[in-house]
Write a structure and sequence with these properties.
By secondary structure, the chain is α+β, with helices and mostly antiparallel strands. The chain has helices at about 15-25, 30-40, 40-55, 80, 105-110, 160-180, 270, 280-310; strands at about 60, 65-70, 95-100, 120-125, 145-150, 185, 190-200, 220-235, 245-250, 320-325, 325-335, 340-345, 350-355, 355-360. A hairpin with a 3-residue loop joins strand 1 (about 60) and strand 2.
């Protein structure tokens, strides 16, 4: 058991019962048949069926036909997450909470209590979710994936910034595979959906200013954020190696955002027009993360980096980066393995930036000095 009492493995009698029902989704099965197949007593089988129903499984009962799963629940159901989970380690130790302040904080507490690599914390609601620089993360109930993974701290020579890139590429790929939505990576840690829109009131460039004049509509690429990643090193005590807690949030089925986020945020639902089952998407995400994680651990870090950088919405573009030391404007030329950005300013000087707030500039945008 995990320190909070959650199951460590997916082969419990309740999981086996769920698997039997899930394998024959929509078919009624008699209690006697289930009990015989699983070598359980009828009383225990009925009790486990009641537990699954209480957990949120879409369990239906017919007096003469027995029990069936009528559908795949969108609730964050542990049994569904573990059903046919295609990972060796990630998510096998699973904690599902209805409400937490921060999944990263819960993961840290579990590590201090003995939880190991691969432990996954998933919450339906975060009341104090946070992003980079301590910013609040909007994470309402029933609409997103708010998760934290416990990973081994990077070995010497591999920066935690690399794992942010790795997770970003894996999550973007999982969303595209499962939802058909092309997601790109905006430096340093955002998952974005891009669309081309007509911007009214802008025409060609004006004289010496290099800024667009008022006039007819012109097309522009607008990016809206639908996810983010926050990796934090966590010390587990004097006698244990530090770990990396990799938090990620994905706006899955959100239909609206607070006023302050409405112009910059989006969700998979808003982009595709279709609802996505969160459990099924999470399994895809875990599979893709573990695939890249194992590849990097086996010496394939450069391969992972190159395929991830193909998803960048930042490289090759004119950008503005605000840092604590001031702001820089120029062309994003390189993202290094440690996650830092190399920017060439208008004078040709190259700057390396570890962290900052980035804006992708449209051609002809004015930049306040």
């Amino acid at each position: 058991m995990l320190p909070d009492g959650s199951d460590r493995v997916s082969s419990t009698p309740k999981q086996q019962l769920f698997d039997a029902l899930r394998l024959r989704l929509g078919d009624y099965l008699q209690v006697e048949e289930l009990s015989s197949d699983l070598e359980l007593s009828g009383g225990l089988t009925r009790g486990l069926l009641d537990e699954l129903s209480a957990d949120g499984a879409e369990l239906e009962h017919h007096p003469g036909l027995g029990y069936r799963l009528g559908g795949i629940a969108d609730q964050l159901l542990q049994a569904e997450i573990h059903y046919e989970l295609e990972t060796q380690t990630l998510g096998r130790d699973l904690v599902v909470r209805e409400r937490v302040e921060s999944t990263n904080d819960v993961a840290g507490e579990l590590v201090e209590a003995g939880a190991g690599e691969g432990t996954l914390v998933v919450a339906d609601v975060q009341s104090a979710g946070r992003g980079r620089r301590g910013r609040a993360w909007f994470s309402p109930p029933g609409a997103g994936l708010w998760c934290s993974l416990v990973l081994a701290a990077p070995p010497d020579g591999l920066d935690p910034g690399f794992l942010t890139l790795l997770l970003g590429g894996a999550i973007a790929r999982a969303i595209r595979l499962h939802c058909g939505l092309r997601v790109r990576l905006k430096w340093p840690n955002d998952l974005v959906a891009s669309r081309r829109v007509e911007v009214a009131g802008l025409s060609g460039l004006s004289g010496d200013s290099g800024c667009r004049e008022e006039g007819a509509a012109n097309p522009a690429v607008v990016e809206r954020k639908l996810g983010g990643i926050l990796c934090e090193l966590h010390s587990a005590g004097r006698d244990r190696q530090p770990v990396l807690i990799a938090g990620f949030g994905i706006d899955v089925n959100l239909t609206a955002f607070p006023v302050e986020l409405a112009a910059t945020a989006t969700s998979i639902l808003l982009e595709t027009g279709e609802r996505t089952n969160r459990c099924l998407l999470l399994k895809e995400v875990l599979r893709e993360i573990e695939r890249d994680y194992l590849c990097a651990a086996a010496g394939g870090g450069n391969l992972i980096l190159q395929q991830t950088l193909k998803l960048s919405s930042t490289l090759g573009r004119r950008v503005l980066v605000r840092t604590e030391a001031g702001q820089l404007v120029g062309v994003a030329e390189e993202i290094r393995p440690d996650g830092s950005l190399v920017l060439a300013d208008d004078g040709g000087e190259r700057h390396t930036v570890r962290t900052g707030d980035l804006v992708n500039l449209q051609e002809g945008d004015c930049v306040a000095s």
